[in-house]
Here is the input.
Amino acid sequence: MEKGKGVMGSGRRWAVDFTDNSTAPSSRDIPDPPGFTRASIDQDDSALSKQKKDAEANWKSQKAWEVAQAPFKNLMMMGFMMWMAGSTVHLFSIGITFSALWQPISALQGVGKVFEPYKDSKVELLGPKLLFIALNLGGLALGVWKLNTLGLLPTHASDWVSSLPPAQEVEYSGGGIPLH
Amino acid sequence: MAAAVRFFILLLLFLSSLNPILSLYEDQVGLVDWHQQYIGKVKHAVFHTQKTGRKRVVVSTEENVVASLDLRHGEIFWRHVLGTKDAIDGIDIALGKYVITLSSGGSILRAWNLPDGQMVWESSLQGPKDSKTLLLVEKSSKVDKDNMVIVLGRGCLHGVSSVDGEILWKKEFDTQSLKIQQVIQPPGSDFIYVVGFSSSSLFEVYQINAKNGEELQHETAAFTGDFSQELSLVSSETLVALDAARSSLVTISLQSGKISFQQAYISHLVEGSSGPAVMLPSPVTGIFAVKINAVTVFIKVTGEGKLEVVDKTEHTTIISDALPFTEGQQAFALVQHEGNKIHLIMKLADNWGSDLLKETIEMDQQRGLVHKVFVNNYIRTDRSHGFRVLVVMEDHSLLLLQQGAVVWSREESLASIVDITTSELPLEKQGVSVAKVEHNLFEWLKGHWLKLKGTLMLASPEDVAAIQKIRLKSSEKSKMTRDHNGFRKLLIVLTRAGKLFALHTGDGRIVWSLLLPLLRYSENCQHPMGVNLYQWQVPHHHAMDENPSVLVVGKCGQSSDALGVLSFVDTYTGKVLRSFGLDHSVAQVVPLPSTDSTEQRLHLIIDADKHAHLYPKTPEAVGIFQSELSNIYGYSIEADNGIIKGHALKSKCVGKEADEYCFGTRELWSVVFPSESEKIIATVTRRPNEVVHTQAKVIVDQDVMYKYISRNLLFVATVAPKASGEIGSATPEESWLIVYLIDTVTGRILHRMSHHGSQGPVHAVFSENWVVYHYFNLRAHRYEMSVIEIYDQSRAENKDVWKLVLGKHNLTSPISSYSRPEVVTKSQSYFFTHSVKAMAVTLTAKGITSKQLLIGTIGDQVLALDKRFLDPRRTVNPTQAEKEEGIIPLTDSLPIIPQSYVTHALKVEGLRGIITVPAKLESTTLVFAHGVDLFFTQLAPSRTYDSLTEDFSYALLLLTIIALVAAIFVTWVLSERKDLQEKWR
Here is the structure.
């Protein structure tokens, strides 16, 4: 494998693209030769391709479910890391906590992208997507919970009153020992 | 992961190496602090010029300082500050090498080594009663002879050996009522005369053997009239006294112990003179001076007691002491004022007509009149005589005049500061020239290059010296403009002499000084004295074109009903804006929280009759005041009667008509301490300008306690009357100390606590919601410090987070003392090693920075002690959470960390007070300690967390950035090249 890759990488002088672009008629500049009808070929292979497509859809949905479940492993890993980090505020625990918060958020932002390759008219992606979102939300919750145990969330009365200025006094009094 | 752990461990190591350092390095001394040494107003001066190499003068002062000064520059060679109760009565030089001082009302005699000021011996002189004190050092021509010091003190005459201080003899006088006026030793004789009055008309003379104190002769003579007890020694056997009516002079001659009187009327001697006469000290043998009204008359005593007027002058004249001039001759100096010039006239005793010297010297108007003159002569290179004159001025300054010019001067007024306030400096005006900037840039780069060399240990010794010089002579710190951090300010200082100074906080130099005209002697105001300073006007809106001003409050005399005087002084120019005498007395000055439209602060002056007078006297001020009248209260502490009274204001004065600026008071409440068991010894309130950041204190587990923060709290300490004296004068059973926290609006006692077996003196400091006080525990035989913290229990219920989030709470709504909030207090006591002279607390601009107590120790140093050590929540074994909060395990005594002395190696001799002023930079506070010396420094109780330190190397930072940028560029180029190669393959 290594060797082959090396050969391919370094020894390439020219290349021929064998990709068949023919299925997309709009991309063609050259008209089809006379007597050649594209549709007849498709119809000929329709049974075969349908079978193939079904298999592909199956595979896609399977993969989608796998991807949807991936954050669970992450969640377990995070939980372990958090337990390791302890409950005092220092650089390590803050780093862990923020990565625990950031990962689910970035994952949630890219939900569409993650499931892009498995997009298919025949594949039902709602289920995996929901699972993915739920697991990531779980991760986020874990992060928030960690943030709270570190005391970084304003959930105590002290967090809200510690910067309150002293109340004004209505009365003013002055005096003392007579000057001498 | 591994990398993260490694990084974390490294970071921990780095953080643990960052212990808070409160002390400073040796080369940081003098960077932000300055120290000035003074001696006080000179009382006596004795010149020492026997050896030509050492030109010194030994002086004693009203601040109880003995000092030896350099006659060339006025620097202090050595100095000793005796205690405040150890007033110096006389000084002299014995044997040519000892300075003899008599102090404490003639009961302590000390000898100091003249060159270095080391104490040689000390003798304590006992006697039955207080009396006049006199110090007489035998002047003998023979050096090897044991010269005796003859001391009159506590009603007895003592003969003391000047070599070792041994009391050789002591003579008590039989007559109980004898008031000794003079002790005379005729030159070359072995006996001394002691003369005095035993009644108003009975004159007594004792002749005493100077060697052993034996009484040789005792004569008494009655005069037909009464004496005024004023006596002037004219020659060794002739005295002149004034009679009780102060209209005639009586010449008393003691021919071999026999007394004879001769009376002469002043009106006969001096034509056209009337009014009572005052004796002035006789300058030289044979001549004495009398002051009648404003006229000074010099009278010569010829043989057989005949009196002859030699001169009279209407100028204010000051006469110096006698100066042995040439063989058998005596000279003296006269100083006369004329406008802003003074005339210095030297005369010989037996030749009045001609002047040895006559000089006219221009004198600074701000120095006032000449108070004392001391003369000394020297031989010039051409063998003629020159004179040095040491002059003490009205403003306490000390000047040396020589050859018609002021050689040096010392502003000794600063040794007796009465009150201090601060003023901002002018704002920097626009338009700094480009050349100056470029020069500065070059200097800046050069300085930082040197610093960088220093940091990288590449600096040569010369470079190190240059770095130190740059740091010390930083022109930044002594600029006359406001700086961004608020380190540069003016300290406005009022001194006992009635002189106002503005000191620059950067280097301590005097920016301007002003002898306040209203605090000088005048017909209407006989004994004026400055009392207090207040910030009158602090412009914010028009800071560019308006100058701030201070209010100086003075009184005409000691009594409580003496009339007051007010002066308003511009703090930029040092000019008096307005000044006037008041028609009422000044018992209290209350600066009010409000200002008028020109930003003048409203002040209430409460007189002895409890009327309140409002200043400034403008209708606008009255309007502002009237609207707040119902919420303004006053209180007065009558320490002698043990009563604290609270007052409310009424809209009109009773018994005065048509004075709309006068307001009456009515008594609201009074707290009466039982006089048989309690005596008020100390009271303290919060500083009015203190800023508190928050009302909540977060404790373990995010719990909250609400501080009880009120400006109207008064801390009062009382002791048992028996124990109000010195420590040790009462047993622990009969002494107690009781402390109170009193609300001065309602008179409510919020807290009361007693310390049995303890006594004063009490020093206390009140800040935010806590009081710290220092006292003596008789049972433990140690000093103690206690802390009381006071919390508002009625707010403790505010714990619902949602209410707080939505702002549905009343924590910031104005509160009234009449709502009687429920309070809880916490307190704790600790032993403290030092006795304390003064105590203060650091103040910062926003009150966020943690506090430090500044303790003026008995050793005249200032110690900074973290407030964390005085926390009532300290326990012996704090829990983990408490440790995290920063609670220090409880110990029985407070630690004294040698590095936390703010004054490092210096002493602020005679320390009287410590003032703290917030800088604009939150972390920093400015500290000014004053006594006989002055000391100023900047302090950062939690270190300078909001700014880079002074020795931060900007050049290193710049270099690092440049190196990083270069590295980025180089690597970028390299990677580009590599990419290209990759692509070509």
Q: What stands out?
A: The two ends of chain B are 37 Å apart (CA to CA). Residues 1-5, 7-21, 431-437 of chain B have pLDDT under 50 and may be disordered.
